[in-house]
């Protein structure tokens, strides 16, 4: 209640807002490893851009991006040279591509998004080219492009002739990237060949709140996996062309007046390129063919082209699914809703059974829904708040130099912001803390291009007495609400007892939220967990105790409830981002995301958890959980050593005890679980990519020819669990895809997909 009235008090200031607060606050971001005077924040107008719709602003914008020499052509990757390139409202005429550097965010005024307008003679592959072809290969290896955002823009190609090839944005990137609040305007008439968004590869990723108007295709995309929600397509010839994928989750699509909605027919029936697509809570209006597929009962590979749809509204969409032989699912010239329909292999709960048709829709818990759809909320950008509503941590005395102990300064800044009903702005920096940072109810915290809270010292190094680095809510079940966005929690040096985030807060009514808040452990400058300390040693099963870097990424405790997570990547580094060859490292983090909330609800939109020793996701004694798309990877060093070391199982945390569960099991059984569900109910996973690419740093095990032998098992459903639904489960490198109480449910070779094995529908019963 008190919080509510404080909100009103801040809102009353909103009437005075002119520009976006991000442009108006003091710019004090410090990149401690980039040299003195390195500019974190860049307003394009300070670099000569006019935004008047007449002047060619290309050079000025690229000058704003390249100031201080961040990671551009020929640079592998970096965390040391962040950039926030800010565009005030206006129309910026450009004649060639804008090239955002690695770890550079392009951010427009959220209240009045600026337009990037291509000249009639525009030259380039994308008005924004996020990964250029300076040579025949992409400048950055697409699967290693992390920590980049573009938000709040209108991208306009309407001045380019409809028949001239034009691309709004080129974005082959990977985890911890996001596009938000972007409109793509293209010609809508004639023989238009423009494409709004083009992605050819990568390991994404998340996008939300995009609108595509006109064009031959709104989006033409291939990538391992993605989560995309709230995308609108108006008057495109084809809304989405799916070039290839393993798994893709779409929610909240609104496709209107397009000839084809989603074309997943790439490769044709004899060589399907699209592994799987999960589509929920979406609508097609005035669309002759909603889904175009090449799947047949005999198409190749066996499970490729798997399609799972749930809660799809058709309004004048006469063909819902069209295959090579004609209509597979009729639509209507009126209105109807498809409750659930799919094709592929299903296990309900045993299988495989090939199917193409309706199936029982998930029994969705009401706690997860808003107007019948899964609840969503985009990252708040606070565009109605003036700069005076923000408190800077640096103004409050924190240094962010990765060396100073910032514990007290950071804590005081958080407390003051909450007491004054202000939003805490974490200026870019690496804030070293030596005891727990507590985030109380009422906190709203937003970072400047992923500042880092970095735990350090003996307080976090007791494996028998783990401590949270960031604790949200002081005790499990404390009531209240917080909003956290755009920062990273990490550790420095040996931290065998660090729990990066402990979530205790119980939020009823409006959920709390985490948007683009990541855990990134090791592999970057300032962590002292890089090639110098922890370079990989294939074949060496002896654990280097100096490379035990975290106990757990995130713990959601029993009394916690009501948390919305969007684009959250929990990553123990497999390689050194700041080393020019991206050399691999061996560091040990115990556990990924552990949820033991008694009641839920939790929403995990576009999350990943990678390289934790015991498991990536574990749910125990919990319920009411939405997950989609999730992505995991097993540590590359396993089984040398395997998951029996170096984190002994803790019974009170329901840790897997591989010594017991692997007795008599063949192969690499003592390997990290991708997903483990114990005594839980009402859990729905809409798309999962559970990958185990390596055995002792060799990828030879992760092919069908080799028999997917990297590990034996990857998904475990245990105990009294019920109403566990997994759609489009894609596994790589594991022999058994799903286990129920230790018994094998699904076998990799029965479910061959393009690169993974796929089960379109699993229902535990
Ligand atoms: C692990 O890989 C290394 C390097 O290829 C090799 O020398 C070693 O024999 C392997 N060890 C095991 C147990 O497979």
TrEMBL record:
InterPro entries associated with the record: Pectin_lyas_fold, Pectin_lyase_fold/virulence, QRT3-like, RHGA/B-epi-like_pectate_lyase
CDD domains: GH55_beta13glucanase-like (cd23668)
Entry's Gene Ontology molecular function annotations: polygalacturonase activity
Keywords noted in UniProt: Signal
Pfam families assigned to the protein according to its UniProt record, in alphabetical order: Pect-lyase_RHGA_epim
SUPFAM superfamilies on file: Pectin lyase-like
Domain Rhamnogalacturonase A/B/Epimerase-like pectate lyase: 41-263, 390-509
Stretch forming the signal peptide: 1-19
Protein name per the record: Glucan 1,3-beta-glucosidase
């Amino acid at each position: 209640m008190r919080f509510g009235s404080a909100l009103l008090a801040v809102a009353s200031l909103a009437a005075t807002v002119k520009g976006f607060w991000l442009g108006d606050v003091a710019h004090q971001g410090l990149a401690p490893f980039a040299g003195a005077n390195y500019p974190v924040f860049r307003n394009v107008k300070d670099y000569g851009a006019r935004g008047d719709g007449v002047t060619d602003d290309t050079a000025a914008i690229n000058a704003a991006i390249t100031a201080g020499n961040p990671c551009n052509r020929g640079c592998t990757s970096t965390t040391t040279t962040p950039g926030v390139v800010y565009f005030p409202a206006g129309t910026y005429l450009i004649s060639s591509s804008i090239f955002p550097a690695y770890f550079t965010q392009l951010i427009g005024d959220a209240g009045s998004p600026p337009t990037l307008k291509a000249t009639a003679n525009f030259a380039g592959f994308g008005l924004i080219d996020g990964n250029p072809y300076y040579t025949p290969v992409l400048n950055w290896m697409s699967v290693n492009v992390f920590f980049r955002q573009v938000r709040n823009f209108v991208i306009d190609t309407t001045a380019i002739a409809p028949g001239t090839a034009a691309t709004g944005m080129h974005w082959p990137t990977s985890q911890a990237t996001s596009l938000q609040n972007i409109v793509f305007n293209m010609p809508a008439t004639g023989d238009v060949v423009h494409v709004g968004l083009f992605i050819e590869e990568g390991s994404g990723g998340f996008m939300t709140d995009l609108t595509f108007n006109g064009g031959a295709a709104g989006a033409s995309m291939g990538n391992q996996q993605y989560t995309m929600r709230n995308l609108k397509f108006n008057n495109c010839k084809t809304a989405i062309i799916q070039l290839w994928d393993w798994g893709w989750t779409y929610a909240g699509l609104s496709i209107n007046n397009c000839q084809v909605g989603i074309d997943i027919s790439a490769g044709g029936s004899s060589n399907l390129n699209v592994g799987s697509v999960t589509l929920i809570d979406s609508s097609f209006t005035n669309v002759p063919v909603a889904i175009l597929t090449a799947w047949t009962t005999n198409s190749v590979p066996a499970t490729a082209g798997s399609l799972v749809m749930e809660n799809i509204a058709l309004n004048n969409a006469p063909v819902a699914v069209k295959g090579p032989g004609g209509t597979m699912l009729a639509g209507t010239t009126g209105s109807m809703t498809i409750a659930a329909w799919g094709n592929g292999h299903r296990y309900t709960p045993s299988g495989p059974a090939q199917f193409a048709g309706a199936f029982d829709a998930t029994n969705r818990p009401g706690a997860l829904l808003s107007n019948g759809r899964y609840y969503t909320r985009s990252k708040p950008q606070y565009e109605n708040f003036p700069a005076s509503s923000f408190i800077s941590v640096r103004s409050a005395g924190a240094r962010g130099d990765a060396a100073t102990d910032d514990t007290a300064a950071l804590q005081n800044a958080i407390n003051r912001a909450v007491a004054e009903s202000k939003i805490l702005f974490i200026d870019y920096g690496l804030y070293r803390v030596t005891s727990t940072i507590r985030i109380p109810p009422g906190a709203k915290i937003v970072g400047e291009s992923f500042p880092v809270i970095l735990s350090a010292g003996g307080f976090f190094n007791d494996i028998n007495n783990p401590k949270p680095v960031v604790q949200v809510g002081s005790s499990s079940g404390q009531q209240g609400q917080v909003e956290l966005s755009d920062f990273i929690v990490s550790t420095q040096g040996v931290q065998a007892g660090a729990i990066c985030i402990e979530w205790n807060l119980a939020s009823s009514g409006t959920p709390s939220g985490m948007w683009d808040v990541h855990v990134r452990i090791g592999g970057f400058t300032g962590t002292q967990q890089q090639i110098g300390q922890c370079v990989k040693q294939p074949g060496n099963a002896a654990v280097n105790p100096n490379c035990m870097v975290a106990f757990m990424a995130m713990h959601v405790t029993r009394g916690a409830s009501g948390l919305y997570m969007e684009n959250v990547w929990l990553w123990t580094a497999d390689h050194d981002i700041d080393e020019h060859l991206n050399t691999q490292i061996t560091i040990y983090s115990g556990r990924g995301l552990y949820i033991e909330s008694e009641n839920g609800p939790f929403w995990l939109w576009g999350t990943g958890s990678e390289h934790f020793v015991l498991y990536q996701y574990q749910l125990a004694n919990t319920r009411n959980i939405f997950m989609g798309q999730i992505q995991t990877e097993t540590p590359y060093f396993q089984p040398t050593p395997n998951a029996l070391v170096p984190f002994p199982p803790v019974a009170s945390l329901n840790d897997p005890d591989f010594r017991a569960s692997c007795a008599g099991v063949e192969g690499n059984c003592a390997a990290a679980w991708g997903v483990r569900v114990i005594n839980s109910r009402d859990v729905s996973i809409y798309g999962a990519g559970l990958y185990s690419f390596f055995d002792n740093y060799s990828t030879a095990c992760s092919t069908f020819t080799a028999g997917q032998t990297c590990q034996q098992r990857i998904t475990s459903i245990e105990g009294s669990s019920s109403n566990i639904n997994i759609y489009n489960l894609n596994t790589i490198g594991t022999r058994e895809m799903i286990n129920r109480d230790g018994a094998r449910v699904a076998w990799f070779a029965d479910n061959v997909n393009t690169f993974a094995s796929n089960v379109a529908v699993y229902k535990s019963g």
